[in-house]
Amino acid sequence: xxxxxxxxxxxxxxxxxxxxxxxxxxxxxxxxxxxxxxxxxxxxxxxxxxxxxxxxxxxxxxxxxxxxxxxxxxxxxxxxxxxxxxxxxxxxxxxxxxxxxxxxxxxxxxxxxxxxxxxxxxxxxxxxxxxxxxxxxxxxxxxxxxxxxxxxxxxxxxxxxxxxxxxxxxxxxxxxxxxxxxxxxxxxxxxxxxxxxxxxxxxxxxxxxxxxxxxxxxxxxxxxxxxxxxxxxxxxxxxxxxxxxxxxxxxxxxxxxxxxxxxxxxxxxxxxxxxxxxxxxxxxxxxxxxxxxxxxxxxxxxxxxxxxxxxxxxxxxxxxxxxxxxxxxxxxxxxxxxxxxxxxxxxxxxxxxxxxxxxxxxxxxxxxxxxxxxxxxxxxxxxxxxxxxxxxxxxxxxxxxxxxxxxxxxxxxxxxxxxxxxxxxxxxxxxxxxxxxxxxxxxxxxxxxxxxxxxxxxxxxxxxxxxxxxxxxxxxxxxxxxxxxxxxxxxxxxxxxxxxxxxxxxxxxxxxxxxxxxxxxxxxxxxxxxxxxxxxxxxxxxxxxxxxxxxxxxxxxxxxxxxxxxxxxxxxxxxxxxxxxxxxxxxxxxxxxxxxxxxxxxxxxxxxxxxxxxxxxxxxxxxxxxxxxxxxxxxxxxxxxxxxxxxxxxxxxxxxxxxxxxxxxxxxxxxxxxxxxxxx
Length: 680
Hints:
Layout: H1 11-16, E1 19-25, E2 34-39, E3 45-52, E4 55-62, E5 65-73, H2 78-94, E6 99-104, E7 114-115, H3 121-133, E8 136-138, E9 141-142, E10 148-151, E11 157-160, E12 163-168, H4 169-174, E13 179-182, E14 193-196, H5 221-231, H6 236-255, H7 258-278, H8 282-310, H9 322-336, E15 341-342, E16 348-349, H10 352-367, H11 389-396, H12 401-409, H13 424-429, H14 431-448, E17 457-464, E18 475-481, H15 483-496, H16 519-533, E19 540-546, H17 556-565, H18 570-581, E20 584-589, E21 592-593, H19 610-630, E22 637-638, E23 645-646, E24 648-651, E25 654-660, H20 663-679
Helix pairs in contact: 2-3, 5-6, 7-8, 8-9, 12-15, 17-18, 17-19
GO molecular function: RNA-directed DNA polymerase activity
InterPro entries: DNA/RNA_pol_sf (IPR043502), Endo/exonu/phosph_ase_sf (IPR036691), RT_dom (IPR000477)
Domain Reverse transcriptase: 444-680
């Protein structure tokens, strides 16, 4: 791309390097130019399909498989790029087969693909429209966010993602392991891109058990569950393990591979239909009808199978959306696949063994506290309101099966399962078999403040925060808890939520009944507007603080002290702290499970109870600020002469602090945050 020279001048170099030209378009002076080469001895046939402006489209063939590759150099002139975008849309109609486009597009599609300079919505929209019209998506990229940079005025650098690789759904399905690596640049202002098509990697260790929702459609599976549960009736953990064991045998001996059964039935139906063209036999007609019914059942099972893996809430079952669910699953897996990261020492690493070891060390250090908090001195801090007697009675009342059933019905049936592999759909479908034992173990948990440790085992899924994560900090560790554990914490939430307004002040707007998430946003807008319009000599200031890894760093001692200070009954404190402290964590790394470890701090993101416990911890910061305001140390702002003082607003872990714009107030804010950090 943008070769700056003619191909003839470098032909001998490429011959000595063992490459031959497939096709080339020479540069015009120092502008444009595109060469497509292949290695000598490569048995993939490459035929030129079309050449247009600075683009070349070739058909790559190996045996009966073929796909199309378009190499692009888009002009820096916007009007010329529009002409090229229109041509790509027209070319889409002529391409029959998987299609990949790569090169210098000289445009970006979103603000996050630029650092410095101005973003043009019009130009971005034009390229995005082409991608939408042609059903093209970005191939997963690693190694860097931007592919071009150049100094501008004042020696300030401008970075953009001008080069990209995009594909359509058939190409994505043909190469599910493909990804793009942004390589280091030397003399050019562009980074080279390396497309790695890849082969599926061998999963290390035994394949973890996952309940298949399609089993429900089999007439014999209900008996399998009933028989397995009856072997250890009254012992919930062993019952669930027996269902796992018997389900694996059932899947192997009775249910089988859906795709293979589908292919076999298609062949049998084709044979019968061919036979009916020659002879008219009633037996064949009846057989065709029975096989057609069986085939319809397999189609339903296939749809359920891919819907379960797609994890998509907005589209529903029943419309034969199998292809959509399959595609969604493949794209999600590719996006979550980790091919390379910067290690803590700054080095770029693509070795999977090294990355697994570094990931284990990073998250183990994150969830394991090296120092103790100052929560022992929490009694000296400000005292807020406590729960009343009605709330305490609600938290400690006897568990009923109806209450457990209600909590189960509130859960999404296809949410990602925990280590035991059972989603909510299993318990909902077979509640008449398993319900009594589930209700019994939950009732025991509320009575004794504990439950079998295996229920609290947790998987950690690493979800990218950005399109191209560069290090471990750019992943969000989401905890996948077992369904029965989530039922326990869901019941705690249902009992606690109506009374949270008793102990959480008006400055927090997240997770509380009767409070809208936009309430504090409106107050913030009014505050900023008032500050800008104010003509007072002494100004006001506002700090927006995002607490890094806020959930993961909460001290357990601090949490327990907050529960006691807010008047939680001892039985509830014991159960909540057991839920928090009894967990063991296992990181999921590219499908593989790393060795488990025991955390010593933090709240699990993915646990229904965690957001409410975090809000409770943040309320202590609110109480410190209120005390400082009352003592005259913190000077809040007022939006009008007689308006109420405004010192802080909370959006879960996003903190907004308001004060007079003086150095002493800035120092006081820093001291307050330091005090809260020492406690928590």
